[in-house]
Each structure stands twice: as structure tokens, then as C-alpha cells.
């Protein structure tokens, strides 16, 4: 019996029990599929760990004893398709067999991303992957999406940008880290701000679903969706990216011409949102014995409330953030019903002392705002972005 199998019957053996069992539940889920990439260049295939003892055993043996995550990689990418332009990849069946050992049916993927994806997969022989267009079905519960990303060993995010943008950003980051204090010219500083701004103007950053794909995994590597050269300088760890942003925002190297201004030119709502959200998620997921407070949730909701992220279906303003709360809301098409269910789950969450600690009258009042009349009256159908939805959870005194 492996240490992982033994831990199922004796959870006390595992320090991070909650994270570990989140992954084990996923392995048993009947809708959880993974793409297996063989090490002999043979055809890739979809496997279902819940009903495939061979691959389930292999996965269990590879669970990281320190990180408590599953050994699969996850892929994040911008779909960029429409009803009139589905960008069907009709030859995907030449590369992949489905779980029934038949050639995989055509999937939607823009042509410019296909070679990058195949090359990335081949770079990782004998590996497991979760790729939405291959592994998700119309009946896949949306609630498990958060588990898939939170429990992956690493998420590769294919961003709609030029490789040169990431390379320049990496160069500027190293220049900022290693340059002598107070030696940056205004031009150098503005160039660093500009390359960050250019990167976060990509459409990948503007979608609701990519929020959890950037926040929930412990490790996220960003690369161009058209990348062909997989050297480290052509990719960037999201932790380095947010660190670069924080250094720009608060650095003592800010040119003296900018001293005393009210808001730093480096301020970037997208990166601030990702930084705050990853800090919140890391604190909750990887800090033993800690629980949330209403103040923690307020900081998270304030990040949501300035988010320009968009989605095609209003219900995704809820489903796209469920992973950080681990709420289980069934797939429903009615936006108002979904929102009311979210608030009910949030109310139950706030009432659970094992998950949220409320210390004083101010925090009790804050918790009541999150699920009060103002929140209940929010209309997802009229919202033009994610920020408009979560403004409803912010006390009027803080707006």
C-alpha cells in the first residue's frame, strides 16, 4: 500500500489534510478526465482515473508528499472562438484517442495555438494533463473546475501575446532587481511600466474564467500561445510577474520626477487583482490551521469590484470564482438563481466558525453586508463586467 492510499484511511498522517483530500476526491470523480502523454511517442489518450485502476495507481504514486498536489499539468488558454468561427481542429484524432480508445472528436482550438500545444505536450513525456477542450464535457460539473486547477502540479497559461513581450518583460524585471538603487531614469521606468501594461492588455487577462486559472494553482507559467522556443527566458512564472509589479509600484528606484504623485504610474488593476487573489488563496490553502475573516473577504471582493473581466454568459461571473471558496453550485442557466445560490452559500460559509472567524461588531456588520439586501438586489444580466457584480458586496461607506 502506498503512503497516499494509506492516508485515505488515516488522514492524520497528512499535514495538509484538506488540500490532500481535495485531490483524492477529484481522482474519484466520474467526470474527471486526464490526457496521458506516453513516453514512447505513441498516441496520446484520455483516461478516467475513477474507473482506470492502472492510471489511478500511477497517479497516486506520483502525488507530491510536500505540496499535496496531483501530478497533472493544467492548461489555460484563450478560446477566441464564436458560433460562426468555431475553429474546429478536425485532425486532433490523429494525435489523441478518447477514453473509449476511439480517435478524439474535433475540438475548438485556433490554428495558431495548435503547434505550440503539441510541442508543449511532447516536452513532457509520461505526463498527465487537464485541457478543457479535451477533458471537459457538457455535463462536467462546473464546481470541480476549481479543484482541477487548485490541485495541479503546475498550470501552463498560453497567452495571446508575442514572445518578444515576455522576453522584454523578463529583461526589465532582472534589470530592476539587479540595478543599483535610485539609478533608474524616467525613461527606463516608463519602459518597464509600458511592457507590463502591454502584457496585461492581452485578451487572456480579460476573461472571467482565466482568473481562477491564474490564482488557484500554486505555480503558473505564462507563455505566448505561438511559442516555439521553450527556453526559460521566453516564459515567466506568475509569481515573478507579480513580484516585478510590486517592485515597480513601491520601489525606491522610482525616478525623482515621479516623487510625491498621488498614484504610481505603475498601478495596474489586473496585476493588483491577481496579486491580492493569489495572496488570499495561498494564505487559505497553504497556511495550516488558519481561517478567513470578513476583512480577508473584503480585500478579495474589493479586487473583484474593480475587475474589468468579461464573460459570454452572466452565470460565469459566479461559476468563474467558485474555486477559491470551494462552493458547490449545480449548473443552472438562470443568472439570478445562480447569484442567490451563491449568496446563500456565502451566508453558510460566514456562519461556519471552522472557515470564518468573526471577532467583533464591525466584522459582524461587514459579514451582513456581504449577504444583505444590497447584495441580493444585484442583477447579473445588467452587469457589463465582473467589477459591476461584486460592487454589490462592498459597503457603501467604502465605495
TrEMBL record:
Domain named Heterokaryon incompatibility is located at 74-213
Q: Name one Pfam family in it.
A: HET
Q: What highest taxon heads this organism's lineage?
A: Eukaryota
Please identify the protein, giving its name as recorded. Heterokaryon incompatibility domain-containing protein
- This chain's source organism reads Lichtheimia corymbifera JMRC:FSU:9682
